[in-house]
Amino acid sequence: MQILVDAFANGAAIPKRHTCEGDDLSPQIRWSGQPEKTKSFARIVDGPDAPAGTWVHWLHYEIPSSTHELPEGARQSQIGLSGQNSFGKQGYGGPCPPRGHGPHRYCFRFYALDVGNLGLNAGVHRDQLERAMKRHVIAEAEYVGRYERR
Q1: Average pLDDT estimate for 119-131
Q2: Which of 34, 118, 121, 132 counts the most CB atoms within 10 A of its CB?
Q3: Domains of the chain
Q4: Residue 45 in contact with residue 57, Cβ under 8 Å?
Q5: What sign does the CA torsion over 24, 17, 103, 60 have?
């Protein structure tokens, strides 16, 4: 499975527009190459370099297998459901590392699932989503961006 984020190359800097210092808009994301048995997708966007531990920026699940793109600014899931991020909200919360900590990584992880419905409501926490997905992941892909507040 492959992920493409139009706003930045894999491993490159995330534009300010997609961070807390800009418009805080989720970037447009496209994906392809999922296995034939895919019934839905899930996505976890996190920042593993946060001083307090991994910071969840977006939990997104129940994405139909017919969907292969999310537009820029899909803050509250127009497709599927969003879980609670580490900002205490549902939807996308862009990179916002502390100043002076150097560049942080932001991982966009996509999962192809063999079920169409995980039986979850909107607003779940990461551990709940990961438990529900555990035996259903049939493929995954990762795309990484970097951001540093100056």
Answers
A1: 96
A2: 34
A3: 2-147 (3.90.280.10)
A4: yes
A5: positive
